């Protein structure tokens, strides 16, 4: 009979110890008073019955029953690398083998790969989930470049053909001949069979169930109730567990921080060895006319988090008023329309005492309300540009203007149909926000790995594993 037990290195009087007190000891022929030999080798302890040994199996009396227990303390535990806590214990007849939890092996490999890429100036492999039109992908790529790190999107997953085609056409420099672009619902993929690995994972979690508007439109109380987006966090966690990327950047609407989904993400990632940092960033702190607020979560393995801080983000001033980002649209352009149905709705709302008013911009404004993915539908809650001389006429922002409002490079949606372009931009991030986040992460990685030298045996231990021990 064989038993597998997951346990931890505990402490007694502030000194480490391994404590085994279980009925399985007797099942494996260990009885109180038996002599045992405890031997240690790097990251491994072996306990065996041995009649010539001096250590014995201790005993504990519980009511009228004598139970065996084994306690290991002292120098023999120094065979485990600093920072290892979780242990894997295999018990067979007369023998016990204790090794680090398998988590440390996968963490070790991913950290060594990232260490090699950073110090040898290789391109960092990025896994992008829910990629959309690639706005977040481009921001991360350019932010890492500002930090002196090159990157490539090794794998991109997107469900919509129209977004993936726009991304591939306008962000071709983010990919190489070995990149994998997957058009599929994430829940239909078996990542364990794809052999994809990466250094950084980025994901804009779909917010249709978490945003205020999404809940109202879908008549739901909780993000998880959304029939399409509600369970996507589960598949996100599956990909993370199967790839063990050292660094993760997640973004969504700020309301997502209070969802059950986020509670599960925190719990699972912590159990996988990640340290999480969370914040809410505002668009107008990063040069955007749109003050869109966004949840940002950075999760990192080992002690990488010690070099990452949202306090180090580079902020950008707003460049000017709305008038500075407007295209030269002819006054007789068909884009200018009366939108009588919106004017009628506003008048009706005013008459009924409602506070709704249309957002009509004259160009002097230094802030713009959030522009969503459905902007091309000409909705009443989003901004319009007033005609300079005819008060009855107004128009939507052009695609390029929409991009500028969010500090997004205009070429990201070149050649993309207007409606789709507004969708790409409307569901995206403030570009300079994540340019700054990625730059901070890149500088943090260089700082973290820069403290390690392959020729110095007294390297700083990274916490969970000794990077340079192999």
Short description:
The chain has eleven helices and 20 strands. It has 470 residues and is an alpha+beta fold.
Describe this structure in words.
The protein is an alpha+beta fold. It folds into three domains: 3-101, no CATH class; 106-317 and 431-452, Vaccinia Virus protein VP39 (Rossmann fold), CATH 3.40.50.150; 322-425, Alpha-Beta Complex (DNA Methylase, Chain A, domain 2). The protein has helices at residues 24-27, 103-119, 135-146, 161-170, 212-218, 232-243, 260-271, 340-351, 399-405, 418-426, 431-450, and strands at 3-8, 10-12, 15-20, 35-41, 44-49, 55-56, 58-62, 65-73, 86-92, 95-100, 124-129, 151-158, 180-183, 200-204, 247-253, 274-282, 293-301, 359-361, 383-386, 394-395. It has a seven-stranded mixed beta sheet with strand order 13-12-11-14-15-17-16, with helices on both faces. Strands 1-9-10-5-4-6 form a six-stranded antiparallel beta sheet. Strand 2 (10-12) and strand 3 (15-20) form a beta hairpin. Helix 3 (135-146) crosses helix 11. It starts with a strand and ends in a 20-residue tail after the last helix. Residues 455-470 have low confidence and may be disordered.
């Amino acid at each position: 009979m064989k038993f597998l037990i997951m346990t931890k290195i505990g402490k007694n009087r502030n000194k480490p110890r391994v404590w085994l007190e279980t009925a399985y000891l007797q099942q494996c022929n260990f009885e109180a008073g038996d002599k045992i030999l405890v031997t240690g080798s790097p990251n491994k302890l072996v306990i065996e019955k041995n009649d010539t040994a001096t250590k014995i199996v201790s005993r504990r009396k519980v009511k009228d029953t004598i139970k065996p227990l084994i306690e290991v303390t002292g120098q023999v535990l120094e065979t485990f690398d600093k920072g290892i806590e979780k242990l894997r214990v295999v018990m067979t007849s007369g023998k016990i083998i204790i090794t680090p939890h398998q988590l440390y092996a996968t963490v070790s490999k991913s950290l060594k790969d990232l260490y090699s890429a950073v110090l040898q100036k290789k391109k960092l492999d990025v896994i992008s989930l829910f990629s959309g039109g690639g706005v977040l992908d481009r921001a991360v790529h350019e932010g890492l470049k500002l930090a002196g790190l090159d990157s490539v999107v090794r794998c991109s997953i997107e469900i919509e053909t129209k977004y993936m085609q726009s991304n591939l056409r306008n962000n071709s420099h983010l990919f190489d001949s070995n990149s994998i672009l997957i058009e599929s619902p994430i829940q239909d993929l078996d990542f364990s069979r794809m052999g994809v690995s990466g250094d950084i994972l980025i994901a804009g979690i779909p917010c249709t169930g978490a945003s205020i508007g999404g809940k109202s439109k879908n008549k739901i109380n909780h993000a998880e109730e959304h029939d399409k987006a509600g369970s996507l966090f589960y598949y996100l966690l599956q990909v993370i567990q199967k790839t063990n990327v050292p660094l993760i950047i997640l973004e969504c609407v700020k309301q997502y921080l209070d969802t059950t989904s986020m509670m599960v993400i925190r719990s699972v990632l912590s159990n996988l060895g990640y340290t999480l940092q969370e914040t809410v960033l505002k668009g107008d702190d990063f040069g955007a006319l749109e003050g869109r607020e966004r949840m940002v979560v950075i999760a990192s393995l080992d002690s990488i988090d010690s070099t990452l801080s949202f306090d180090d983000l580079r902020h950008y001033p707003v460049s000017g008023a709305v008038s500075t980002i407007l295209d030269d649209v002819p006054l007789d352009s068909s884009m200018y329309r009366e939108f009588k149905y919106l004017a009628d709705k506003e008048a009706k709302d005013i008459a009924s005492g409602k506070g709704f008013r249309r957002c009509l911009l004259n160009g002097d404004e230094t802030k713009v309300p959030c522009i969503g993915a459905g902007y091309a539908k000409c909705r009443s809650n989003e901004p319009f540009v007033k005609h300079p001389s005819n008060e009855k006429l107004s128009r939507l922002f052009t695609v390029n203007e929409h991009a500028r409002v969010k500090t997004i490079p205009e070429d990201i949606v070149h050649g993309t149909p207007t409606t789709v372009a507004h969708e790409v931009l409307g569901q995206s991030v403030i570009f300079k926000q994540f340019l700054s986040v990625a730059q901070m992460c890149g500088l943090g990685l260089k700082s973290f790995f820069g403290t390690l030298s392959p020729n110095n045996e007294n390297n700083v231990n990274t916490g969970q594993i000794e990077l340079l021990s192999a």
